[in-house]
Amino acid sequence: MKKVALVTGVASGIGLACAKKLLSQGVAVVGMSRRAAMNEELGADFLYVSGDVSSTEDRERFVNAALEKFHRIDILVNVAGVAPKVRADLLEMTEESYDYVMGINTKGTLFLTQRVAKEMIRNEGGAKGSIVNISSMSAYTSSVNRGEYCISKAGASMITTLFADRLAEYGIMVNEVRPGIIATDMTSKVQEKYDRLIEGGLLPIGRWGTPEDIASAVYALCDGSLPYMTGQSINIDGGFHIRRL
Fold first, then answer.
1. Is 228 known to be catalytic?
2. Is residue 64 part of a domain?
3. Which of 83, 129, 174, 192 has a CA 20 to 30 Å removed from the CA of 200?
């Protein structure tokens, strides 16, 4: 039986790379993003749903669309994420910016995972599903000009821990990928800054990461080859997390 994956933030970057990787391995994919439409044709096993993961109604419509077309959900990849619209010092951060970032990055991840987990529990067989959350190195790295983003990703890490604990009894594995400096639309606005840092030796693997680097790790976490691992955070960051003297 063909597995079915839900992927958020699917219109570009990491989300699109994850969708393509899963499709290339024979997994059907239902993707959602806030964009009105996707320009790429990904084949008959792909269904696109326009929606905002921070919206209760859109999350429900997303899940229902998957169930109507494919009748089950085996994989959830929570990719959708936003940076603050304006990078502001922590002392100047606004409640509006905090609510916007947390609504998508943390609240949306939490309640979509809750909704999908209830469907996965109904799946027949041993391993009932895999959930992978895309967090960030910002879950543990201070950036005082985008504090709401760091807080949101730290929250996403705890969502991984909580659901890994809660869902293990059902054979649902929940893990997390923490990307480093990845070449996406989000980081394009600060490309020169990161170019300088990478050239200066910030990363042991001295290059930008790609969405495909993240997609490969995501697939490894949901292809069934790691059945005794849950609640784990995988750093795909060029070695950024290594403390060096």
1. no
2. yes
3. 83
- pLDDT for the residue 116: 98
Q: What pLDDT score was predicted for residue 185?
A: 86
Residue ranges of the chain with pLDDT lower than 50?
none
> Helices 13-24 & 211-222, crossing angle to 10 degrees?
50
When divided into structural domains, the chain yields a total of 1
pLDDT digits (tens, 9 = 90+) for 177-221: 999 999 998 888 889 999 999 999 999 999 999 999 999 999 999
Q: Within its chain, how far is the Cα of 119 from the centroid? A: 19
What pLDDT is attached to residue 22?
98
Does a structural domain hold residue 245? no
Entry pTM: 0.96
Its domain, for residue 72, covers: 4-236
Residue 53: closest CA among 116, 96, 97, 142: 116
Closest Cα partner for 135 from 236, 228, 205, 61?
236
Query: Closest by alpha carbon to 31, among 15, 55, 13?
Result: 15
Tokens encoding 20: 């393509």
147 within a domain of the structure (yes/no): yes
Question: Please, which residues have CB within 8 angstroms of residue 223's CB and are 6 or more apart in sequence?
Answer: 25
- Domain with residue 217: its CATH number is 3.40.50.720
Q: Which entry of 48, 98, 100, 149 is annotated as an active-site residue?
A: 149
